Amino acid sequence: MDMWYTEKHSKNVGITLRVTRTLFSGKSEFQQLDIVDTPEYGRMMLLDGLVMCTERDEFVYHDMIAHPALFVHPAPKQVLVIGGGDGGSIREIVRHPEVELATLCEIDGLVVRKSVEHLPTLAGAIDGSHPKVKLHIDDGLAYIREHQNAFDVILVDSTDPIGPAVGLFEEDFYRLVFGALKEDGIMVAQSESPFYHAQIQRDMFRNLRAVFPIVEMYQAFIPTYPSGLWSFAFASKKYHPVRDFDRERAAKRDFHTKYYNEDLHLGAFMLPTFARENIAD
Amino acid sequence: MDMWYTEKHSKNVGITLRVTRTLFSGKSEFQQLDIVDTPEYGRMMLLDGLVMCTERDEFVYHDMIAHPALFVHPAPKQVLVIGGGDGGSIREIVRHPEVELATLCEIDGLVVRKSVEHLPTLAGAIDGSHPKVKLHIDDGLAYIREHQNAFDVILVDSTDPIGPAVGLFEEDFYRLVFGALKEDGIMVAQSESPFYHAQIQRDMFRNLRAVFPIVEMYQAFIPTYPSGLWSFAFASKKYHPVRDFDRERAAKRDFHTKYYNEDLHLGAFMLPTFARENIAD
């Protein structure tokens, strides 16, 4: 049986991948979860039919959601991930020796359980065994409302602004995140494709700028995401992602990163003109 | 009729686009040429079934093959394009006021004729009317053999290293290009996807380094190309693409570029770790 999965990125374009096996398929109270095996990209997780991550290219997303903020903040001790139930972001965070505690707050326990079961290269740090990792199955908004002034870095590792993540793109949410950060805290959030999602980016960055004094966008290339060009919002109370970047510390890191490096950190903020224009004031 | 075109980027993955109309389909002595209309990407040209360009995203490729070299070379007067029969590279070259003559040497006259007919936003400068453009329907190797020490910049705007373009990735060809450049000349060539084509890149950059003293890779994101991450080789006799970049001149350009800008020029050379490793000495 020659089986292909096609994710439509619009009515008129999509990516198609050969699938050899379904490892899990089921519904939580929040969403449909599928984990399948593909010959080209390894195991692949889908939520409501959208590709969340694959074993082959997840290194790009997880390097880029985690390392820029963690190499800009001079002492990232308390780090929170909202969403990110596959565990990839937590895996990267705990590679930083400065981190004392990495907390995962994921709304959907099924995503965590099935990632631990079927995506061990991602979820190794959220299987309950890591001494620096704490796990909460909870709504991110409720969690940060109760944990104000608590974190150095917060990563919003969410799905698209439809379904359970819709509230994670709104100004009220960013005000709560601002409050949950310490006085020099940094938030990073995935911010969709500059090529396909100009309007979402415009709204999101307007909402962020209403709350944070420093808001910049940076880019990464992720082959299995719509258009291949993805972006992140860097929203900060004090540190600028380029001017306050500790290039020396990043260059001296004692772990290998397949995508991130101290030069790419700077290059990621040098955006194509059309991406700049999406979020122009 | 719901018609989709799927380009397989390997046996196991591909891009799929809805197609509404075929504008041209035919075979030259070199290759199969198709031009179709798509709702998402506008008109799209395929050679031997591979997407060469679409109206919606061709600006990335053509900005990035042309502008970096033309803003590094202090006086790019004589510019040659080998391949590039759609005309997009020539269109960008003649926007530079320093350029006195832009020569297109394309092996396949059918590509030029059908681009002029069906892709006017790309081929406007190669329809015979532009005073600074000269057109040769000829084999690129034969042409440069007869035009040594003649060009400031040569752009190798080729297809993949299969079919008619296979010779354009070999050391002998780069020696001819070196000879066809003046003493401070620059060559730029498309150099495939760092994500899918590591071995091609390794061979190509080894061949280039055997000939040119300065060889660097830079990246651009092109949604309709395999993986979305594409690259170019910058091979130069004298000028370094970053250290000798005239940022001021680039910033003062009097034309709008939807992808290229003077910051992105620098960022494009800041590569992901895995791409660096593809071409490590």
List keywords for this structure.
homodimer; 281 residues; alpha/beta; Spermidine Synthase, Chain: A, domain 2; Rossmann fold; 2 domains; seven-stranded mixed sheet; four-stranded antiparallel sheet; 10 helices; 13 strands; globular
Task: Give a description of the structure.
The structure is a homodimer of 281-residue chains. Chain A is of the alpha/beta class and 281 residues long. Chain A has 2 domains: 3-52, Spermidine synthase, tetramerisation domain (Spermidine Synthase, Chain: A, domain 2), CATH 2.30.140; 58-278, Vaccinia Virus protein VP39 (Rossmann fold). Chain A is built from 10 helices and 13 strands. Chain A has helices at residues 58-72, 88-93, 109-118, 120-123, 140-145, 171-180, 198-209, 247-251, 262-267, 273-278; strands spanning 3-8, 13-19, 21-27, 32-38, 42-47, 50-54, 78-83, 101-106, 133-137, 151-157, 181-190, 214-221, 229-236. In chain A, the strands form 3 sheets. Chain A has a 7-stranded mixed sheet with strand order 9-8-7-10-11-13-12. A 4-stranded antiparallel sheet of chain A has the order 3-4-5-6, with helices on one face. In chain A, strand 12 (214-221) and strand 13 form a beta hairpin. The interface between A and B is large, with 42 and 42 residues.
